[in-house]
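This section describes the prediction task in plain terms. A model, or a person checking by hand, is given the sequence of a single protein chain and must write out its three-dimensional structure as a string of C-alpha cells. No templates, partner chains or ligands are provided. The sample shown here is typical of the held-out split.
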Amino acid sequence: MKQIYNLLVLSILAGCIQSCSDNVAVFQTGMAKVRIFNAQIKSPDVSVTLDSQMVLTSLTNGMLSNPIDVRSRYARVFEIRNPNDSSANGRIALNTYTLADNQSYTFVVRGTSITDFLRPIIDTAVSPFAGRAAMRVINACEETFISVYVDTLMLTPFVTDAQTITPLYKAQTGTIRVSAINDDTRDTIAKETVQLQDGKCYHIFLYDSRNGTSVQQNMKIQSVQ
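The expected answer:
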C-alpha cells in the first residue's frame, strides 16, 4: 500500500513539474537594424559604440551608415563620439534604446552648439500610397526653417521647423526636382534631380554643415532600405 502511495505522489509531482514547465515564458532576443545619419558639426566625423563595443569607426557629416545589426527587446546603449578625443568632451550623444524584433530604424545625431539624437525613425520601405512614391522630411538643422518643393509644388503642407521629422507624404514617380528653401531668406539651400520609383519611400535629410568658419545647410535624399 505504501509503495502504491509513493508511486501516486511521484506521479502527481511529475505532472505538476510538466505543467509548470509548460507555463514558463521563455524570452529570446531577436534582431533589429539601425542606420545612423551624421548631421552634427561639432566633430569632423564620429565613431559609434553599442554597449561600449565599437561598431562604426568613422562617419562624416552628411553621411548615412550601413545597417548595424542590433539585438532587440532589451535596452542598448548608443554613444556617438569624436574619434579624435578620448576625454569626456569627446562624447557627442548618448542614449539608451529598446528596439523591436525585425525592425529597421534610422538614428540622426544632430547639432551645432547642442548635440543629441533626434527621435528614432521607424523605417518604412514600402510606400503607403498606391502607384506613388513616399517622402519624409528630416530637418536636423539646429535653427533653420525649411520649405521642401517637389518640382514647383510644396511637398509638405507646412514649413518644416528645425529639428522636425515629418510623416510620409505622397510624391509622384519618375524624374523630379527636389528643392530646399530657407523659409526666412527664401534662398535655395540645395536642389537635386532624382528618380523616384513607384512603391518606394525616401528620406530627405536637411542638415547643417561647416564651410570654413560659417555654417550652411545641405540636403541629402536617400531611399529607405
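For orientation: Helices lie at 2-22.
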